[in-house]
UniProtKB/TrEMBL annotation, chain A:
Organism lineage string: Bacteria, Pseudomonadati, Pseudomonadota, Alphaproteobacteria, Hyphomicrobiales
The species this protein was found in: Aminobacter ciceronei
Transmembrane segment boundaries: none
Domain CheW-like: 579-715
Region annotation Disordered: where it falls in the sequence: 280-327
Any one GO MF annotation of this record: protein histidine kinase activity
Start and end residues of each Histidine kinase domain: 374-577
This enzyme's EC code(s): 2.7.13.3
Superkingdom of the organism of origin: Bacteria
PROSITE patterns, alphabetized: CHEW, HIS_KIN, HPT
Gene3D superfamilies, per the entry: Histidine kinase CheA-like, homodimeric domain (1.10.287.560), Histidine kinase-like ATPase, C-terminal domain (3.30.565.10), HPT domain (1.20.120.160), SH3 Domains (2.30.30.40)
Stated name of the protein: Chemotaxis protein CheA
TrEMBL record, chain B:
Protein name: Purine-binding chemotaxis protein CheW
Domain CheW-like, chain residue ranges per copy: 11-151
Record-linked CDD domains: CheW
Name of one Pfam family that matches: CheW
PROSITE patterns per record: CHEW (PS50851)
Transmembrane segments: none
């Protein structure tokens, strides 16, 4: 069953990609950029999902995808104009399709009422009602002559009552190799009507010559059915491409489906030839024989195979199968393997540095042959490191793609008109960051629409267009990724923010704060400006949670706001979570790393500023605020006696809760980017230590977990509530 | 490990090492490599037998001082000391010992039950004893060397 689960997982991964493509395509159509490539890509995405879902018997998904696909087909063949109204329905249908896929994956169900409503709407869009059953021909319609077939079958299908067909079906070895089974096909066929099956075993070789994985049998089936040829073809839907199939109505002179099947065969032959490197390849239509569940992979194969022949390549680019023709080819790789590779390359860099140092120590001068060779080695290792890190990098597009749907939902819930503009989708960042970007970003977008933008009537009264604009952009800036969410709403209502902060006891009533300080009040825990608690962004989860989760990623969140013009939230994140900016310090001869994001400043304690509070605990006065001074060496058990604070350095840090403490260390070695290594994988969690890292000399240094060190120091020493003159 | 308690008559290989005057052995299948001693980074609030962590080709490897773990006087490690990198369940642990002495090929019936002694250490770690050329070698199981599986009283 594991193998099946793996296949299913692949299917759902592919669904994700198809859904993303679907959404991108629909949005392009909505903007009026409905080129035939786009429409084809959209159509194909839905079709692939349907095909895969069929293979896994996900009935609900298949049914909905089918209706969706039928409507899309009308757009594709020009019978339905993609107006704004039509596209709105389509986009909602895409959202539902995504929900159905998610439901199928996680094993829960989606409200069937919602599905029915959309099915109704989609069907209503179809010109001439819902009778269109075009799925099989859809696959074929990329062949230039098949539209004729479609037309013929349509007119023919309704009068097909009790006709008999002669079907010849000769599986090729590939059919079995893909796990299909003839008997299942025949059994399925039996459900359509009366069957008379003859098996032609004349192709069967002697046992000695028999290839156990070969296919030698041919079936001739006489079927009498009330269903049309479409129904028969549907039975063969997943095996047709790996077999020779002809379906002939008994009383018709010739079958119209045959050309399709034949050309498939031709295409297959062409594909074979191109695989064998035969230069005389026909203008192959290789890319077309792909509408099976694994379309994704086969598409890649088809593209690779098609490249040798120019004709095929040209065909590729004009067919919708490759709406993203020219897009780089990709492989799927296990993340663990990539991580292992990154680890090893990191070690290589350290080793190379150590080797260089030893060589210099051994008396080789720079410029000597050995030193030059080592320089070369250094260049190579750095380059390898860059390349390996780039493997994990992903465009933020995968996160941004989910935003349009979110905007639609929040806009309709709040009754606001919103236009989303995205920029810099191609900006790349490490996968670890991508994975954790979604939640804070979702919250920021909700916040921008719910709290930032005004209602349409308010906007019009203020002389702005009724439609608000939310701009989401990503860019690289000095080794970090910066993501901005900007709205053109009313901006922060500073007097109200201040009033609420006073009311909630967050600041003193007579506090004098700058505009910037007031803006930053919204990041304080327990602050929520929504006067009415909406179910969108007022769920008790305020911007403080967003800020904290961004800080947890080693990032920063800031806000700028102009009254009447709107607000901009800017989050800046490291390009990878695998590394951390840290301050390397020495405590009791141990090298430790303090995460830079927690640090506010460092200072040299003066005798006059340090005060004992009894019980061995001390505070330090920093700009009129008494801050607990925590002896890191003692706290971590590296030494038992208190250090002289005047001989050390105090690092002022802020905890997640926004409180400040000063960490006392012996010396500061410098600032460095370090690679985060887990302690838990081979040991276990160590209190006060977040993780470990490996320094340039190959030794392990521990990364301090600032929050727990502070929390522990407060629990084990009898420290009074820290005296803080001002919060924030 | 569990297989060390299995009793069949198949032959197996054990790796023998010295701690002070005594000899011990573990199943060779659980040992991944043997390397020289390198100074370890001290872990705060860890049991005394955990020497700290070292860098094993990019992975963080905890070092257990097997002498201290087994209740002997812990040595002051020198370059002549040896770290046996061993697989314990899903984790990889470095074991600090004085020296690796031998590779033994024995059948299971050569492994005699542990003599009845009161020592907790013997009960926790020793799975049997071997008599080879007049030496007594204790076969030890590694599942309990790390504190993670045995809550420390701190």
């Amino acid at each position: 069953m594991d193998a099946m689960a793996a296949v299913k997982q692949t299917f759902f991964q592919e669904c994700e990609e198809q859904l993303a493509e679907l959404e991108t395509g629909l949005l392009a159509m909505e903007r009026g950029e409905a080129e035939s490539d786009t429409v084809n890509a959209v159509f194909r995405a839905v079709h692939s999902i349907k095909g895969g879902a069929g293979a896994f018997s996900l009935e609900g998904l298949v049914q909905f995808a089918h209706v969706f696909e039928t409507t899309l087909d009308h757009v594709r063949n020009g019978a339905l104009e993609p107006t704004a109204d039509v596209m709105a329905v389509m986009l909602r249908a895409a959202d539902l399709l995504a929900d159905l896929v998610a439901a199928a994956r996680d094993g829960h169900t989606v409200d069937s009422g919602r599905s029915e409503v959309l099915v109704g709407e989609l069907t209503a869009l179809s010109p001439g009602g819902a009778e269109a059953e075009a799925e099989e021909e859809d696959d074929m319609s990329d062949f230039s002559f098949t539209p004729v077939t479609v037309a013929f079958d349509f007119s023919d299908a309704p009068v097909d009552i009790g006709r008999s067909y002669t079907i010849t079906f000769k599986p090729r070895p590939e059919l079995y190799a893909k796990g299909n089974e003839t008997v299942l096909v025949l059994r399925e066929l039996e459900r359509l009507g009366e069957l008379e099956i003859n098996c032609d075993a004349s192709g069967l070789p002697s046992l000695a010559a028999l290839d156990p994985e070969g296919a030698y049998l041919e079936w001739t089936i006489k079927l009498t059915t009330e269903k049309g040829e479409d129904a028969i073809r549907e039975v063969f839907e997943f095996v047709e491409w790996d077999s020779s199939l002809t379906i002939q109505a008994a009383d018709a002179g010739s079958s119209d489906a045959e050309p399709g099947a034949d050309s498939t065969e031709d295409a297959f032959a062409a594909l074979l030839r191109s695989i064998q490197g035969d230069e005389a390849a026909q203008p192959a239509t290789t890319a077309e024989i792909i509408p099976l569940p694994s379309a994704e992979e086969r598409e890649a194969v088809a593209e690779v195979e098609a490249q040798p022949t120019k004709a095929a390549a040209a065909r590729n680019s004009e067919s919708g199968a490759n709406a993203n023709a020219g897009a780089p080819q990709t492989i799927r790789a296990d993340l663990e393997r990539v991580d292992r590779l990154i680890d090893l390359v990191g070690e290589l860099v350290i080793n190379q540095a150590m080797l260089s140092q030893r060589v210099m120590e051994a008396g080789h001068v720079p410029g000597s042959a050995v030193a030059l060779g080592l320089d070369e080695l250094e260049h190579l290792t750095r380059e390898i490191q860059d390349c390996v890190m780039a493997i994990r990098a992903q465009a933020v597009k995968s996160v941004f793609q989910r935003i349009p749907r979110l905007v639609r939902e929040v806009a309709s819930m709040t009754g606001k008109q919103v236009r989303l503009i995205t920029d810099g989708e191609g900006t790349e960042v490490d996968k670890t960051v991508i994975d954790r970007l979604n939640d804070p970003l979702t919250h920021m977008i909700r916040n921008a629409i719910d709290h930032g933008l005004e209602k349409p009537e308010v906007r019009i009264a203020a002389g702005k267009p009724a439609e608000g604009v939310v701009r989401l952009s990503a860019m690289h800036r000095s080794g970090r990724i910066v993501i901005e969410v900007a709205d053109d709403g009313a901006g922060i209502n500073r007097s109200r923010v201040k009033a609420i902060a006073v009311e909630k006891g967050l600041i003193a009533a007579d506090a004098v704060l700058s505009d910037e300080e007031i803006d930053n009040l919204i990041f304080l825990p327990g602050f929520s400006t929504a006067s009415e608690v909406s179910n969108i962004s007022g769920r008790g989860v305020g911007m403080d949670v967003v800020k904290r989760s961004i800080q947890g990623l080693g990032g920063r969140l800031s806000i700028t706001s102009r009254p009447g013009k709107g607000s901009t939230f800017t989050m800046s994140l490291p390009l990878t979570l695998a590394v951390l900016d840290g301050m390397v310090v020495t405590v009791a001869d141990q090298t430790l790393v303090v995460p830079l994001t927690a640090i506010i400043e460092t200072l040299q304690p003066k005798a006059a500023d340090v005060h004992g509070l009894g019980g061995g605990s001390r505070v330090i006065a920093i700009r009129d605020a008494f801050t607990p001074l925590i002896d890191v060496g003692r706290e971590l058990g590296f030494r038992n006696t208190a250090t002289d604070p005047l001989a050390g350095v105090a690092i002022l840090v802020e905890t997640e809760g926004g409180r400040r403490s000063a960490l006392l260390v012996d010396t500061i070695q410098g600032q460095r980017q370090v690679v985060i290594k887990s302690l838990e994988s081979n040991y276990r969690h160590v209190p006060g230590i977040a993780a470990a890292t490996i320094l340039g000399d190959g030794r392990v240094a521990l990364i301090i977990d600032v929050d727990t060190v502070i929390a522990n120091s407060q629990s084990d020493a009898t420290i009074l509530e820290p005296v803080l003159a001002a919060a924030g | 490990m569990i297989e060390t308690t299995k009793h069949d008559n198949s032959s197996r290989e054990l790796i023998a090492f010295r701690i002070g005057e005594q000899e011990f052995c573990v199943d060779i299948m659980s040992v991944r490599e043997i390397r020289g001693w390198a100074p370890a980074t001290v872990l705060p609030k860890s049991p005394p037998y955990v020497r700290g962590v070292i860098n094993l080709r990019g992975a963080i490897l905890p070092i257990v001082d097997l002498a201290a773990r087994l209740g002997f006087q812990p040595p002051e490690p020198t370059v002549r000391h040896v770290i046996m990198v061993a697989q314990v369940g899903t984790q990889v642990v470095g074991l600090l010992v004085d020296a690796v002495s031998d590779i033994l090929s024995v059948t299971d019936d050569a492994i005699k039950p542990t003599p009845d002694v009161a020592s907790d250490m013997a009960k926790t770690f020793v799975r049997g004893v071997l008599a080879i050329e007049g030496r007594m070698i204790s076969l030890i199981a590694l599942d309990n060397v790390l504190p993670a599986l045995e809550p420390i009283a701190a």
